[in-house]
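Can't paste images in this forum, so I'm doing it all in text. The chain is below; anyone willing to post the predicted structure tokens underneath?
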Amino acid sequence: MSKKVLIPIAPGSEEMEAVTIIDMMVRAGYQVVVASADFDGELTMKASRGVTLTADCKLVDVADDEFDAVILPGGVQGAETFRDSTVLVEIVRQQMYEGKLVAAICAAPALVLLHHNLYPQALMTCHPSFQDRIGEKYRRVKRVTYDINHNLLTSQGPGTALEFAMEIIINLSGKAHAWTVAEPMVTIPTLQYHKLGDA
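Text version of the structure:
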């Protein structure tokens, strides 16, 4: 059964993160919904470095849908829009209550999850610029951090986006499926989603 994932975007979202995540979820064979969190309802927007991104729909149009994962790209301006979107915060909160995967990268863990006191006792990481906002007990400096008890996956920035996306695939579909995605991409051979263990 195919997985369904939600990837919101907003003006100022980090394009390397957004595009990498979207692309990898498509490669994994998932149903990918890219939804605009823009307050004006625009589907086409400029990302943090000026690249144009286009959403499939408005976030409000899929607010009642069920997703196997909700994945938040970073970028400060984009994450601030996510933070201020009551629709998106409620989607994340519902996902959390149902024990389904939430994944956030770069500024999003700090500006969205921590700001709204979501996952207050979860292990997490984020962009180094925001790591001091995570309580020392819960802060991790790994490039990708997964808290199995909270089903929360976080990561640090554009340079970790590929690893982050692969970990999402591992979480949703296992290492064997992740390997079928990684192998034709000629990814770094030392990364853990390569043919190891049950892969």
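The radius of gyration is 15 Å. The mean pLDDT is 94.
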